[in-house]
Amino acid sequence: xxxxxxxxxxxxxxxxxxxxxxxxxxxxxxxxxxxxxxxxxxxxxxxxxxxxxxxxxxxxxxxxxxxxxxxxxxxxxxxxxxxxxxxxxxxxxxx
Amino acid sequence: xxxxxxxxxxxxxxxxxxxxxxxxxxxxxxxxxxxxxxxxxxxxxxxxxxxxxxxxxxxxxxxxxxxxxxxxxxxxxxxxxxxxxxxxxxxxxxxxxxxxxxxxxxxxxxxxxxxxxxxxxxxxxxxxxxxxxxxxxxxxxxxxxxxxxxxxxxxxxxxxxxxxxxxxxxxxxxxxxxxxxxxxxxxxxxxxxxxxxxxxxxxxxxxxxxxxxxxxxxxxxxxxxxxxxxxxxxxxxxxxxxxxxxxxxxxxxxxxxxxxxxxxxxxxxxxxxxxxxxxxxxxxxxxxxxxxxxxxxxxxxxxxxxxxxxxxxxxxxxxxxxxxxxxxxxxxxxxxxxxxxxxxxxxxxxxxxxxxxxxxxxxxxxxxxxxxxxxxxxxxxxxxxxxxxxxxxxxxxxxxxxxxxxxxxxxxxxxxxxxxxxxxxxxxxxxxxxxxxxxxxxxxxxxxxxxxxxxxxxxxxxxxxxxxxxxxxxxxx
Lengths: 95, 477
Fold this sequence. Notes:
Oligomer: heterodimer
Distance between the termini of chain A: 34 Å
Shape of chain B: elongated
Number of strands of chain B: 15
Structural class of chain B: alpha+beta
Radius of gyration of chain A: 22 Å
Largest sheet of chain B: 8 strands, mixed
Strand content of chain B: 15-25%
Number of helices of chain A: 3
Number of helices of chain B: 16
Strand content of chain A: 5-15%
């Protein structure tokens, strides 16, 4: 499977990663290699094998529904670039 | 051309957990911004989710109530997208294997129509935070208190054929989650909201038309309006030679229109994959059995019981059982009345409902409590008030004047007994010989005149049935 330049741009956009136009052919080549490898895995016969959702063969522990956290807003917001009225401020986004 | 409307709904229900789905932070509504957002909710580096087992139990409760398959093993997945109110860059949700699978639910469309709507699935997920776009010059304010709040997303089959059916379905799910106690269903606070997938197709066509998704409908009124205007838009578009495009639309209640939010080309590519931070959720048969045993009486069961026990019609029973509040009110009133189900039902759906509508009030706000209403019904039953007086007593109770007994005592509203009525009737007959002759010669309409005279003379306090009986015997030739 071979990725095109547009695929690479789209993947970069989805991951919000800025990439250099000149590097795109190299990314396309490397990412295609990964897909080729997955293709190879796909050739294995997995009929009757239950899909694995997690490498550990264990079940999720169920937590009791209790409030255990206290308010640490001040601490968390001390490392935030900008806050106002208790809110985190970020560059304007409107969908 | 005749068009058929096809609607499927995705309802987001906020589960009534005290703490978040993956952290021990509180889910209480209305706290100061970001005071209930812990390191996990903020998506700080190195944190790990710890799953709230109560969310699973509540989800299973819902599944059992709708006869859904319960997955013994379900898995969490990451749904990836970037938005500042989602600090991790993904929403933890369920994708391939949700905890609740296929089931169905019966809805009451109108007085004579019920319909079965299929449930495709219901999955657990976390809510996002809130973005506030106003008040901050060029910036957006983010409150993450809601981030990580446990949600159950209930997905229906595209089984509904009108906005009315969609509303009936939404009401039924709303009633059910409240009965089950798994959500407060508070729509103003966003605990219960809905996305509607809407399409149209020529009547008789098998294939579905292209659908548009209307996002974030949070009232029964808006969902009906939004679907209706969207259906109109799609039909107009197709009839004018255009094509519906698959897209997400927003409903603007001020302008009563839907408008495009994003098209399929711009649609998010969520790149779901199983969440490596969470193990599969495994539910044993014992746990399911235990939950099954803890289920309360559900609306459909209540409806059947009301019909059987109190001889109510299907529609009346359905209305009374439609919410926890109305069912509770009715049952309390029946108790207070000494078991008069039918009379209580008539009064709740008649006089009480009319008064609530007039004042634009909810049942919970009614000044006439179920005990008061039951007390009044008891007096109607033992004939110590007539229906006419009962209405006046009800009005007085509505104005906080006390119990039926106190009000009757205060105003001296006792039904006149036979010994008081008889002389009055005799007098009226003596004074109206012409009418007596008319009546006796076969003009039975005149009977009403006599009843009116007696009621007037007794100031409406006579029991009409008794007046009728006495008049009949005295007027007989």
